[in-house]
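chain below, 1215 aa
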Amino acid sequence: MFIYLSKKIKIAIPNPIPLKSIAWNQEQGWIACGGEEGLLKVIKLETASDKNSSNLTLNQTLSGHNGRVEVVTWNENYRKLTTADQYGLIVVWMLFKGQWHEEMINNRNKSFVTDMKWNSDGQRICIAYDDGDVIVGQVDGQRVWGKGLGFHIRQVEWSPNGKNILFGSSTGDVFVYNEQGDQISKLNMICLEGLTEAKLKAMTWYNGTFGYMQRNAPVLAICYENGRMQLMRNITDSKPILVDAMMRICAAKWNHNGTVLAVAGIENTAGSEEQTCTVQFYSPTGEHQRSLHVPGSDISGLAWELGGLKLSLTVDNFIFFANVRPDYFWGHFDNTVVYAFSKPQRDEHCVVFWDVKRKHHTVKYIKNLVNIAAAGDRCILCTKSDDDSGQHILIMCNAMGTAIDSKYIDIEPIHTHMSDTHIVAASNECVYVWNFASKVCQPNIFFFVFFLFSCAVFLHSWLRRFATGRVCTPFAHASCILLALAILRARLSLLLLYKSSEKSRRTDEKIFHIDDSPTGGKDTDPTRFRKARTTTQDPVCAVCVSDRLLMVSRVSGALHQYGLPKAALEIKHALNCRPDRIRLNSDSTRLAILDIDGVLTFFDPEAKRLNPETGNVVYGLPVEDFERKDVWDFRWADDNPSLFAMMERSYMYIFRDLDPEEPIPSNAYISKFSNLQVESVALDEVMSDPEHPTNTHYFEREIKSLRDTRTLLKTVTIEDAYNYIEQNPHPRLWRLLAESALGQMDLDIADKAFVRCQDLQGIHFVKHLEALGDKKKQEAEVAAYFQEFDKAQQLLLNIDRRDLAISMRRKLGDWFRVIQLVRAGGGASDQELKHAWTSIGQYYFERQRYQTAREHFAQAGYVKGLIESCFHLEDWKGLEDQIDVLPEGDDLLRRAGQLLATAGLSELSGKAYVRAGLIKDAIDVCVKQNQWDAAVTLANEHNVTEIDTLLHKYASHLLSKNKIVEAVELYRKAKSHVDCAKLLFDMAATALLNRKNLRAKKLFVLGAMEVEQHKDRRSGDQTLEGLLEDDQLDDEKAKVIEHAWRGAEACHFLLLGQKQLHASKPYDALRCAVRLTEYDDIVDPLLAYSLLALAAAATRNYAICSKAFVKLESLPKQGRMKAQIESLATELFSAHPPKNAPAATLECPSCSHENPDWATSCQACEMKFLASVASGRPMVDLEYWICEGCKHRAGIEEISAYQFCPLCHTAVGLD
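prediction:
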């Protein structure tokens, strides 16, 4: 950072009344200052675009105090000012109609106020009196609490969250109280060890509003008059940072974001009794950054402006204002500004990559950011690793913020700099150099081609041997030799690559201790370096690097010069200052040095002089007659070693050699200086809203020679301008002259200028103009060169060369003008017109205006464009029309099929593939979209046999994931009815096991219906191939076909019997139960025989019931149920002997034998009786109804009560 005094305002006129206190309202910009004799003023600086304006928009004297105004403090949230004087009078001021007026007054009359502070939200104020009394009140004047602490109070401070209050006593002790006034603890003031007491002068606690510089950064500063300070992270910090300012401290204050602590006091001048008013600036870690000396005898207070860019100081009877130029984390490379800032809600730094040309920015979040450096087309983010290793990481990024390389280093990169080839990072003791542009072992393209050629020769030789059975011996031997050489070359390349990776750290990275004298050999090898923690008495304070030199300066003024790439120490120079920043010019012949006091000087490392004492030649001399003060930024030109720009106070100066141009008012940081143009970025404005950078904060300024050249080219002859540029040569000036000469058609001067700026393309262009001969054509070519294409077109039309105008527009890709010129009468072939319409269509297509693109494609007859446009417009009918128009086998049909497949239109996609002759692709589309019926149809039509294999493979995949329903649907669509039925039967069996009888019946019926569809298909296919296919079915599938309805019948009779039993129809239930016993391989025997036992017992057929109990008792794995069945049987048959009751009979239609009406077959001839699906009774009637779906029977009278078949639910259809 850099700071300089910018304004001085005398408050009391004409009487010189000393000032004692000051406060700056950071929200509204008001400054309140108090002094002797009751002096109290509120002023406000002008907020104009000129930030250095000293005009005041408000200067009001407030009357109300009679004594010295000791304390002034702002309540920014409620726009109130609170002041207190030496007699204890407290006044609260409010703003009314642009003027400040008294709102409340309080006078305790017992003691005076030593300090008072508002909390962070402005709700409460804490007032501390000298006698130890404390009052905490609300913003409306109501007292919250008050008490005496029992000691003299000097300072008070709120914690950021308002939960705690710190009180500093007259002896230097600091006590912690909660918001209710109860003491919590006493801080351990380690900085006072060895002292009995010390006068406390300041306590300031940063509230974290703008985030933190780093995690666990100190935020509480406690300062004593003797110069000792203690910086703490919190009130329980056991390891605070101790600082001795070596001066008598009067005041201290954090800036707006807690990154700088300003400490004001009186410093004794070394070697004399003179005292100087001084402001010292410290980082949160206690590192001294700057000192500012202020004229005057007594400094009493300081205050920061919001943003931390201004500081106000009360010195004697004056207010001094100082401008602060912060050291932002930022850099510029490849038209990109990279900068970092902190967010209150995040621990990481927010790093923004802002492309100023494309007006686009990218945001990244980086933990533990330490520094940023940038050059060329890359930047470096220096971070600290999260672990406890103490290592730091150098992350190399491109303009998009993407990390492309990184290095771990064992030193802290306090000082960093970067060139196009090297990165240097230095701690206080060590210097690390990374040559990131060095070449490593790269794959050889010649070797790659040689290896492929050898493999091709070898493969061709052996394929010929297998094809012909003969081998050309010389050719085969040559192929083997070539392949062996290629493999040997590969092994050698891998070995070299491995060795190069082993040596990469030794060749690309160098590290050395600043007290050593490295020679560039093993003493800079990072793998052998062991001095990373070795301290030095003369720390490093600045570094810079170019393509051939490394400069390192030390606090004592020693300047070390190292040669690159070896990093060998060449010479040591001595400077008369302590550098803060050093930079080499573009050819490393001059070094710019900016010291800690803001003085800029030059040093010539190659200058020689003879030492009169020793007679030896001494290298390196300071440049005489050049010294600039109050400089805070500078930059050498990238392409001219004699040009540089610098920022001095609020002005930018541009120098050629040592001659300055007229100053330019600016507060921007210089980002780039090249091509006679200085680019700068107003980081102060950018940081006010860092997440939304705008190009209004980025400036480009031309230097005087470029501006003068433009003026000369307009006012003098081309020859005079040539002479001027010859005296001030630069490639951009020569290019400017060449363009001006072309405009005046002075080809001789243009040719010379292009030669001087080494523009080969421009030279060829001039030769081309000379070859044309025709002046009008030359003028048209020059107009086109300057991109004045309308002018060039008109010139060509004036000489009746419409063909050249069309050719020019065609080269530009301006097809609209091509069409316009052709329609206006230019000669062009139909092919050229078609190409023009096609190009216009492509123009609209690329901008997603597909409807307009289709219209132009239609005019051009460009079918591919029409297909693409119809696809994006989802015009499937138009796309189908294009498919029909295209001839079979056209390649565009494949593209149409691909597009339709992505849209899920398998039918149209298959149609396109079929017309293209890609049957397999058509089938694949149907398969991928689960359209197996269409896939099977296509396979059958075109005799594709692989479909079945693919079908079963996909089904197995679904089954492995337990997707049985999806597999069933797959088989159904593929018309693989038997496989589908098998899966449905398996699902039904699982449902039966889970006692889901109705679901099981439905699944069995579905499976049986699939089998019926299979039979229907085979009944229509009586060819030999179809019959052989049925014969080749395995036993399991044959069983499925043969007993298709058996499972459905079992579930049907189980459900029907249970229904009849619950409906008090035991005789009907008995018939169903007896028939159900024939299906005990499907239905659980426990269910079947239990139903039979119940129905038999209900109809008093105890013989049948006894047989059912015997079967139940013989069932395995019953456990306790078996004992219950035996007990129930004993009880039942003790009362009822196992005899059947008389029952109705039915006559066998075959042998006329009388059988019980529940019989399932004839007891005499064993003829099977078919069961009625409506009631379960045996069917011996000659008249019956047959279902068209399942082919099962029922009596005419029984089925008349149903609309659908009781088994398969097919419509009955009785007329």
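Residues 473-508 form the longest helix (36 residues). The radius of gyration is 49 Å.
thats it, cya
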